[in-house]
Predict the structure.
Amino acid sequence: MKQFGLFTALWAIALFLGSCVTDPVDAPLGEYEVGVLIMNEGAFGSNDGEVYHYIPASGELKPAIFEAENSRPYAGLLQDIVVTEDRTYLVANTGKVEVVDSKDFSSLGAVSEGLDITRSLVFVNQKLYISDWGAYDADFNSPESYIAVVNDATGGAIAKKIPVASRPEGLFVQDNNLLVACASAKKLEVISLSSETVAGSKDIEGSPVRFFEHGGKLYLYARDADHIYFHELNRTNHNVVGTVKVGLEGSTSNFALGDNGDVYVLTSTGWPDYNDAVAKISVSGQVSDASIYTGSGFYGIGFHPNQKNIYIGDNNGFQGNGTVIIINQTGQEVTTLEVGRGPSGFVFK
Amino acid sequence: MLFLGILVFRLLLFGHSGVVSHQDTLDLTPVEVFSMPLDKYTFGQTVRLISEKDLENFQGLSLGDFLQQRTGLFLRQYGAGMLSSLTMRGTSAGHNAVFWNGLPINSPSLGQTDFSILPVGGFDQVTVHFGSGGALFGTDAIGGAIHLSNKLNFGQGHKLKINSLLGSFGRWNQLGEHSFSNKKLSTRTRVYRNFAQNDFSFTNVAKIGTPVKRQQNARVLQWGAMQDLAWKFDEKNLISTAVWWNQTDRQIQPVMGSNTRDVQLDENLRWVVDYFHFGSEKVWNLKTGLVQDQLKFNQSINRTAQYFISGDLDWSLGPKWSSKSGFRYSYIQGNLSTYEATDSRLELYQSTNFQPNENLGFSLNLRQLVYQDNFAPFTPGIGGEWHFLKSDRHLLQLNSAFSLGFKVPTLNDRFWKPGGNPELEPEQSWSSELGVKHEFGYGNFKLSNQVTYYRMSVENWIIWLPKGNFWSPTNLRKVHNSGIEYFLEASQKMGLWALGLQGTYAWNRAINQTNINENDRAKGKQLPYTPEHKFQLTGSLEKGAGKIFLNSHRVGKRFVGTDNVSVLPAYALWDAGVNYDWNLFNRLQGNLGFQVNNLLNTEYQVLRLRAMPGRNYQLNLHITL
């Protein structure tokens, strides 16, 4: 009985203490922190890029959310969307970056002066590093390519421009280095974030586009007219330690990483038929299916990690707004969405 | 005397003056140098004249500005002083033919004309032909045709003219002209310089806080020179020639949100020679000329040259029949940034007028064009006019026309690398129209109304689509166009006072009939940047040498894409001005004018995110000695 009393007392104390400790409660997610952000590039000369927001569960699609939340147009050709901490960066290849709150897309700032043909960015060490092709020369080459450095997470003036090889695209931060995929120069450039100078440059087979991680390894995706390349990088010295070369005619720079090392790549046959397709390839190099889905005007691709569906952006010839076609992993169409001009990418949340 | 005789002959030969009031292009002033009338074989069609007087306050400004402000036509303007392309009856920029003194001047590589680099001062008058005119004018005349003409006179002695226009945003246009003519010879030399800094203020909606900013990188500098010469070297022979060189050096106004610093240099050289031989009820015309265009965009240079030779015989078979038979041969060279190409075209045409009586007239036009080894569609056109009510005060006229049109694919369409498609077919159209014109006069009151309903179909419409890594053109689109054009002119004199009203309204539906793929949502929708409605009205009050006017034009909403999702709102602009014709001792004459454009300081965009100027002022001074 004494033991029972003691047990009861301890239980009561435990209950009391337990009731005093508050469970960690997540802050409520903002409207745009769930669902899918659909990136619409916009048409050349019109600067009508925009972001659409889609909730797969309900099918709700909200158009042009930047303009809806800020009462002004985005006014740029949307090249990339980068989400970091509580901010979302909308990168325009017409030379600006808009910074919005990830919750409600309200404007926080911008980099609007000094950029040229902006491609992507990373946020590290409380700074923005922005890849930019620089102005074209007389032959529409990009010898003035650079990484712009902005010392404020919400934008502002460019503090420094670091010259890099021609046409920097994807960026990746490894330790205290910034890896830059320079597509036209076919180089991987390594920028030391300490000195903010190019510390190394390596030749790459194919045109490097973007970095991705799979199975704990770091890869660099590259392509040429007839092949795609998965270059595995050493995270310490950044050397290519292995390359998987896959024969794939008409490959493009548009790809999405699926489950289990599957990669979905957009292809286009070119003259005279111009048929586009989605090819399913394994990082290990096996072409599972060179065309799990075919059509025309394919301009962007994404893979929903929870739904396991593939999202394809169809530009409808840029004559008007585009369409997103959602297919499953066997290539069967699930649904289509009427979206903005030139749907070119997706952010899944 | 002979020339007067020629003009009387013209009256008999060309004027269906008893039937038609196309007459605006048929000036019977006995000193005017002869030129072929543009409206002779156009029974049933709508032809409007823009006179030198109409253009007076636009010295050095672009023809595009004039047409946008003072007509029912709509121009897609990419900013102040920037690219300005015309759409007529809901067709595209390349679907109207443009002529300078009878030479086609549409760029053979682009297939269109930039109306922002046709400055007022580079020609004397403009004739607008509405609707398909393939049989009359050849390629490109699907939505209509624009004719720029120089007018010379004999027997005027020496004349010196200086025109200046000073305006907001650094606008300063100047023109100097000397002309001399006697009974046989007429010569005129003209030089002009037009400049605008275009640093107007606008709300930059692309930036945080939408600040008001000064427009950057939009400066325009234009130089030009013209030389006209006409020589009546004997009783039956006349030769006339004109040369026009025009250079436009522009910064290209960036679209809001872009930081581009593009520059463009256009150089255009046009030269024409006409020989006329006047026989008994016959006029022979032999024409030759060249049109050279160079467009340098940043460092990219594109050059084209067109060489023409044409001849026709215009003759009369009694009072009821008249006929014109002719040919035109064109040789085209293109030296573009990505390719070189040549093209040659031969056209045969026949026009016939039949006027069974003074109240009835018909035109039948036929044309066949061959380019390289391809036959363009055979192109007939027929039209008629009937005065079905004529009294002392009223004239009611019924107009009707049916015509075909076509457009030969441009050099870029066929040969651009990469993507050019040599297999393209010509674009084709048919067009029909029915109209009524009413003229009323009573005492000092005059009223003229004209309303026309048209229907048109354009097939094989060429559009450029992204194909893999580049864009390529295909004959894909089909468009049904329909609409109404209305023209109003009224005047009332009251003693020394004169009241004038001039207006136009255009209703244009241009409905896409094709989707480019199963996801496209364009079918059944209005074409982009083609307003259904445009309205323009000018009221004026004159007393003696003084005149005030108020002008307004309203452009309806425009869709940005083919699916009609994004919309640019309608806008209306008002302009007001005052003019005074002065005369010093009958030796020095001129005109002084002051004008306020965009009176209400309306913020508007013709095309999305292309800033346009707010309220601005201009001062015109014309001096003639």
